[in-house]
Amino acid sequence: MEIIETVSGMKRVCREEARAGKTIGLVPTMGYWHEGHLSLIRAARKRCQVVVVSVFVNPLQFGPQEDYQQYPRDFSRDIRLAKSEGVDYIFHPSAEELYPQSFKTEVEVRELSNTLCGKSRPGHFKGVATVVLKLFNIVRPDAAFFGQKDAQQALIIKRVIDDLDLDVELVILPIIREEDGLAMSSRNLYLNPQERSAAAILYKSLQKARELVRGGERRAPVIISRMKQMIEQEPLARIDYISLTDADNLWEVDSIEGKVLIALAVFIGKTRLIDNLLLDVSGA
Ligand code: AMP
């Protein structure tokens, strides 16, 4: 396994691999890997001949009051995991390498970037779309692997690929959870033991929503208010948003029909966590 820190170095090896006729899979990450990351890496390993994983905490996607500095990092552990998972290359550039002083260009995906998480994190998805397009241009992957955990991010990247005619197959993989249902996240590290057990409320509220829909409830406001009631009973939780949207365009829906995304962001103490559930009720 090789660790590459420069854009030119990463381009060179990817062009060589491609010239040798190999398919390249890219897994973009911010490091501090957990089973969620590993599931993407394993999928890439199965599907592609060369696996490139980027480890880059992207300053562009953090707001000024957010946790860019504190974001958990353990690169030596990521390297060990990469070796045991059969990763071929880790791309680990510095912020200066990806964003030199002269850097001016940003990628904005209108509408999709301004709802849900984009409302509470202005500029976040511009940072995401920009870094992902850069990674795509550097690596030129045949396929790129992302998690459904960040459902809005996945939709935005799909938009970038379609709108800008990129030749990348987008592979979205399911959310990997802890035993109590909490979606795995590098930020779970911030939770103290009480917060950690309180954090299970996100998934519990999603399960409640699913149960209501299975029981025949179709009114979005009713489902949202039941989820809200449930979360508000947890003293350490503060809701940022709960939203029921069309799964393809993120428009809020009034009633559940077809493919809907139930997404939420909740502060547990000072830590903002997200989770979501896709439901397909067509004919069900
Ligand atoms: P991050 O390092 O948090 O930027 O995440 C890198 C990739 O891993 C993104 O595509 C995430 O959606 C994905 N990911 C993060 N957590 C999970 C999880 N619990 N299950 C599946 N994928 C995940």
Could you describe the 3D structure shown?
The chain has 284 residues and is α/β, with parallel strands linked by helices. It has two domains: 2-173, 3-Layer(aba) Sandwich (Rossmann fold), CATH 3.40.50; 186-276, Pantoate--beta-alanine Ligase, Chain: A,domain 2, CATH 3.30.1300. Helix content is 38%, strand content 20%. The chain contains ten helices and nine strands. The chain has a six-stranded parallel sheet, with helices on both faces. A three-stranded antiparallel sheet has the order 7-8-9. Strand 2, helix 2 (35-47) and strand 3 (50-55) form a beta-alpha-beta unit. Helix 9 (201-214) packs antiparallel against helix 10 (220-232). It is globular, with a radius of gyration of 19 Å. The model has no long low-confidence stretch (mean pLDDT 98). Adenosine monophosphate is lined by residues 29-30, 36-37, 39-40, 146-147, 149-150, 173, 175-176, 183-186.
Q: What would CATH call the architecture of the largest domain?
A: 3-Layer(aba) Sandwich
What is the count of β-strands? Answer: 9
Large-scale geometry: globular
Largest sheet: 6 strands, parallel
Poorly predicted segments: none
Helix share of residues? Answer: 25-40%
The average pLDDT value, as a whole number, equals 98
Spatial extent as radius of gyration? 19 Å
Number of domains: 2
Please indicate the percent range of residues in DSSP E strands (runs of 2 or more). 15-25%
Q: Say which CATH homologous superfamily of the largest domain is assigned.
A: HUPs
At the third CATH level, what is the topology name of the largest domain? Rossmann fold
Question: Which structural category do the helix and sheet elements fall into?
Answer: alpha/beta
Instruction: State the separation between the terminal residues, measured CA to CA.
Output: 47 Å
**Total number of helical segments?**
10
Order of the strands making up the biggest sheet: 1-4-3-2-5-6
Bound molecules: adenosine monophosphate
| Topology as a string of helices (H) and strands (E) | EHEHEHEHHHEHEHHHEEE
Just give the CATH class of the largest domain: Alpha Beta
